[in-house]
Amino acid sequence: MSQPDSAVADAQAGGGAPESLAALAARHGLRRAIARPSLPAYLRQLWTRRHFILTYATSRTVSKYSESALGQLWQVLTPLLNAAVYWLMFGVILGQSKNIENYPAFLITGVMVFTFTQRTVTGGAKSVSSNLSLIRALHFPRASLPLAYAVQELQQLAWSMGVLVLLILVTGEPITWLWLLIPVTLALQLVFNIGMSLFMARVGAFVRDMNQLLPFITRTWLYASGVFYSISERTDKLPEVLRWALEFNPAAAYIEFMRDLLIYQRFPERWAWITCVFWAVFALIVGFWYFWRAEERYGRG
Amino acid sequence: MAELTKESSHVAQEESQEPKPAKKPKPPKATVELGTPTVIVDNLHIVYKVYGAASDSQKGNAANALMRIVRRQGRPQMKEVHAVKGVSFVARHGEAIGIVGRNGSGKSTLLRAIAGLLPPHKGAVYTDGQPSLLGVNAALMKELTGERNIVLGCYAMGMSPGELRDKYDEIVDFSGIGEFVQFPMSTYSSGMGARLRFAISSAKTHDVLLIDEALATGDREFKKRSQKRIKQMRESAGTVFLVAHNLDVIEDTCSRVIWLHKGKIKMDGDPTEVLAAYNKA
Ligand SMILES: Nc1ncnc2c1ncn2[C@@H]1O[C@H](COP(=O)(O)OP(=O)(O)OP(=O)(O)O)[C@@H](O)[C@H]1O
Ligand SMILES: [Mg+2]
């Protein structure tokens, strides 16, 4: 009984010579179990999973804080404490504040904006590798996972922004009509974050050492992004190319954009707009394409 | 959903084009009217690559890892496990196929390959629509309540909020876990977890459902319920694969049994025959 009866029977019914199983599959319109949907089909599947993405994000937030006594109060406390620590280190102890006016606002803006990107990317890198049981149990477009992590960070960002705006006001900056642009830059940054985290999700799924390495990478990025110092001021002695590279760094661009709005009260330069939009579009397209290319390979091993 | 309707219309077309079926010699075994193929497994080989299978001399602490890098041995050598070796069969609409075999004979591996979760090393798996695998460890989020897990599971399967509202009570009823649905799943007994998972994944009509020992921990009453569910699925022209070590369940539920042995099909056919042979072995 090496060859199943039914296959033989069907092959004979098909007429004449025994039909191969592949031909039988083709005749009945069966498709390979391992097949990546086309990009438009994938996008459509992803759209039908939008409720899953949202519910998964909120569920993760709930379960994340379910162990702690203060619960979701940590969503406010974490950014506050973060800001306090950095201000203590770089504002008070290391004394960076001399050259920059309103250093606390400068610093806190940088920290909040950078944290948004950093957390989304770190979460994205883990999103596939730490959900293997879910991936092996159910079929859904895998990009839902990094997207859900991004949505979760977006929910966190709402609280962080509240804290940020409050602190900015406390340090004596006025409310201006430029604040209307805050959602615009956040949206651009979100798109960039999603692209990055999709990219990192695939890397993290297959490069097994990525999650160990990532903290060092993001910290280097943090120091290179002008969170604690002003890039334009610190780099005037550097060669033009290097300086240009530092300012073209997406994190630095989003941070400077936000500082323009909140602290310097000036409409961001054209260069800043171009950088921010470019990174958002570039990251999303490359990240999504790169993630989708390996869709059928997630969850193996 | 669009895919589904397309498939069924395709099938209908197929029937009308073929003038032969009347003459077609029906296989004598078939008791249930068998439909067109839903799953075709064609000379399938699955190989696992295992990293870090280490001998005693190279245990996995940091010093040894460093020594290996210094000595340029790279990572601990990779080994291959040939879990499925050339399996072929055709499954049809309306069939419930039991898969039996010793521990490590490749049953779970085969199901995961059919579900499209493992890449074939050689050969291919062809399916009609997307099979769903219901495994032992198909947990969603343990630290969340059963209620949340129902919502998440249904959305992950692609239901809309409307469909979820319709199905929610049915799922809770079917799982029979009552007020425990408000408790985190980490507090469930293994049977309760299995009931809820089965209830969630069977809430949607699947063309092909793969069940891997997911019913093993259920009590008698639940076994009856789940068997009824499986029968309904077969009647609605789905195909069910069932892996179980409890042969009674297979005998009661399945219309065909495949006996896997060391990654190969040892026997494939009528439940009573195959199970008798399997019991003797
Ligand atoms: N993730 C894995 N990595 C490497 N080898 C694996 C993996 N999973 C299974 N195997 C190997 O593949 C073979 C078949 O395993 P499989 O889990 O399919 O057996 P099974 O028939 O489901 O057994 P059981 O009855 O215990 O569930 C075994 O030799 C096992 O060691
Ligand atoms: Mg198994």
Total number of strands of chain B: 9
What class, by secondary structure content of chain A?
A: mainly alpha
- SSE order of chain A, one letter for each helix or strand: HHEHHHHHHHHHHHH
Our estimate of the beta-strand percent of chain A is under 5%
CATH architecture of the domain at 12-131 and 206-280 in chain B: 3-Layer(aba) Sandwich
Mean pLDDT of chain A: 84
| Order of strands in the sheet with most strands of chain B | 5-6-7-3-8-9
- The termini of chain A sit apart by 32 Å
* Estimated helix fraction of chain A: over 70%
For the termini of chain B, the CA-CA separation is 45 Å
Low-confidence stretches of chain A: 1-16
Helix content of chain B: 25-40%
- Based on helices, strands and strand pairing, what is the structural class of chain B? alpha/beta
- Major β-sheet of chain B, in short? 6 strands, mixed
Task: Give the low-pLDDT segments of chain B.
Answer: 1-32
Number of strands of chain A: 1
Task: Describe this entry's structure for a reader.
The complex is a heterodimer of chains A (301) and B (281). Chain A has 301 residues and is mainly α. Chain A folds into two domains: 1-30, no CATH class; 37-297, no CATH class. In chain A, 70% of the residues lie in helices and 1% in strands. Chain A has 14 helices and one strand; from the N terminus they run H-H-E-H-H-H-H-H-H-H-H-H-H-H-H. Chain A is elongated, with a radius of gyration of 25 Å. Mean pLDDT of chain A is 84; it is low at 1-16. Chain B has a domain at 12-131 and 206-280: 3-Layer(aba) Sandwich (Rossmann fold), CATH 3.40.50. Chain B is 37% helix and 23% strand. The radius of gyration of chain B is 22 Å and the shape is globular. Chain B has helices spanning 2-17, 62-70, 107-114, 146-156, 161-175, 190-201, 220-235, 247-253, 271-280; strands spanning 37-50, 79-92, 96-100, 122-127, 132-134, 208-212, 239-243, 256-261, 264-269. A six-stranded mixed β-sheet of chain B has the order 5-6-7-3-8-9, with helices on both faces. In chain B, strands 2-1-4 form a three-stranded antiparallel β-sheet, with helices on one face. In chain B, helix 5 (161-175) packs antiparallel against helix 6 (190-201). The longest helix of chain B is centred in the first third of the chain and has 16 residues, at 2-17. Chain B is an alpha/beta fold and 281 residues long. Strand 1 of chain A pairs antiparallel with strand 4 of chain B. The complex binds adenosine-5'-triphosphate and magnesium ion. Residues 48, 50, 81, 83, 101, 103-109 of chain B line the site of adenosine-5'-triphosphate (ATP).
